[in-house]
Write a structure and sequence with these properties.
Blueprint (H helix, E strand, L loop, with lengths): L1 H28 L7 H24 L9 H6 L1 H18 L4 H8 L2 H13 L5 H20 L5 H23 L7 H19 L5 H7 L6 H27 L2 H22 L6 H23 L1
Helix pairs in contact: 1-11, 1-12, 2-9, 2-11, 4-8, 4-9, 5-13, 6-8, 7-13, 12-13
Length: about 300
Amino acid sequence: MQWKRHVAGLAFISVFVVSYFTNKFVLSVLKFTYPTLFQGHAFRWQTFIGAVLLLLFGKLGWVEMSRITRSAALSWLPASLLFVGNIYAGSRALSRIDIPFFFTLQNSSHVVSYVILKVVQREKTQWLKLISICLMMLSAVNLPLNDPQFDYGGYLWAVGHLFCVGAYRVFQVHYKSSNLSDIEQQCINYVFSVLLLAVAAHPTGDLMGALEFPSLQSHTFHCGCCASALLGFLLLLATVRLKSGLSLEHFRVWMFLSKVTAVCLSPFLFFMDINAPSLICVVISHVGEALFVYSEREL
């Protein structure tokens, strides 16, 4: 039984790393960011294909998904809005920031979650968790000051991304109004995202910008969008599979290992300019996250 959990964990790490590397390759190397086309177009592909595959897998009985009531879907819409902000702002940030720096900033979403819980629940302070929060926050604040390729727009999108991640995490953990599974929550997220982005295509200029995009007919562009969509769906299945056999604390350990693996492998695949101070920020941030995960296990 133990070896099955390790296999599921290793599979999750593999899909996680390949998914992030694929998105980074299409966004930064192929530079499909004109002006917001890949973010909008690929995001629609990812959410549309994800919704179709989830509904199909549910019909075939390959994933457990009950009938979603209207009241449950409506009550989950605030989380779906955060999901859209999470993915959209995250893709914008990832297109401009190297993966090690991206995860360093993303770790600060724990700070957002911690602050929200302190305000809402007046959660008792645990010193180890407080130290970890301080380390992650300190790293995130100092990283822009030491990034050799500082991009103001990229860091601004990263701030929006980490806020949405932190708020979504709190909403997901403490949402009690119905018994939606992770699959059902994600299905609502996908459907809501498709509808919202379809409506927003014209106001954001994405619809008219598509006509001027030089690689609109490129097979590489559409293959990149499809690969992003399929890998996103596989990551969802791997996440649900891993969560079903582990406690939340053990799942966080595998998530931490996935980030560390991506950070360590990314310099071998992508060009990045990292100096000693920025590297220290990355290391301290992940040490802080390791302490945060350990403090959650202690609780």
